[in-house]
Amino acid sequence: MLQQRLESGQAIIGVIGLGYVGLPIILNFASRGFQVIGFDIDSAKVEALRAGRSYIRHIPSGEVQPHIASGRFRPTTDFTLAGEADALIVCVPTPLSKHHEPDLSYVVRTLETLRPHLRPGQILSLESTTYPGTTAEEVVPRVQDRGFRVGEDFFVVYSPEREDPGNPAFSARTIPKLVGGSTPACLEMGKLLYAQVCQQVVPVRSTQVAEFAKLLENIYRAVNIGLVNEMKIVADRMGVDIWEIIDAAATKPFGYTPFYPGPGLGGHCIPIDPFYLTWKAREYGIHTRFIELAGEINEAMPEYVVRQVARTLNDRGRAVRGSRVLVLGLAYKSNVDDMRESPSFKLLDLLREQGAEVSYHDPYIPVISPTREHAFWTGVSSVPWDETTLKGFDCVVLATWHDTYNLEELACWAPCIVDTRNALRNVSTQPGQVAKA
To answer: Is 395 one of the catalytic residues?
Structure first.
């Protein structure tokens, strides 16, 4: 019986998707003594994990190796093994199409691959971020088509991922876990599943509530970041410092939460997830104006930064065309090696289109791997961090602020810096050397 197997720690957990979401879940269950099967179509990831090697910077190989050695963690590309699992947790990508519409192809293909191997007594949890109604519309019918009775001999839940890569203050175990069930019985089984590895499980009334809550979390961030990015442009035009304004406003102990501007949004969540709700809302005749406006502002930020680069170079008697420009930081956020949806790619593209000779430096991304949207940069290597290299650029654009950067060296070596993160606020620089963007 599933309940007994979960409570006794004898349940086998299957996790589909060995990326930034799936791998932490696997290690969480394995560290609690569960047997875990990790599924992925990428054989390179599977082989790396079998050898005890992590390909995610903030997850050390030392955290993977003991579970591989003990046999508690079995990475595989063989989806027929899904029948061995008592719980199946789906953590596959949910990107947008080029028209900003949900692309559920990864979810659908995963469900179709799993369907022949499903058996009575399993629980299936979808963790991929998606629009409200996905679990009811895409997961439940496929389970029922196998002849299972959801809530009786098969259980379906939605439990959105809440990973924050590179943030040591939170882990898969400590972040509160939302769970919505397709039926009350499904919810109880979902609560039991995640209670084995999460300190706090937060049940909600339905899978739709859990799906919507995940989108609201990210919409909240996207809209507030869009607001502060717009305020940055206004403040710049008025000749005042947005960073000083934010610090001043943040002294209010109530009614205000500081958000910070940047060169644009990146990562697999904030630039994408809000548009899942925008798309679904149209089904109900609703135009989500806040979401779309915030998206327009945030997507335009790389162009604003490039205009600031052009203005800064112009003040020095140079044009963008023919100038050597270094983009500092390719990852979408500090101290990670994740470059998905990074605005730095847009900076590289825009600067190149304007005729600049563009390079990048990122200690966590030594070589750019293939991407669908920015194929031109595939195989390009990070330039070294040294005095000769940095002095050779006409302008350095600080796009992502990694802790590894020696900002004193940057200020000493780079003749011209465009700082999108206010990283150099406490560093001694020369008059006119640094422009904020």
So the answer is: no
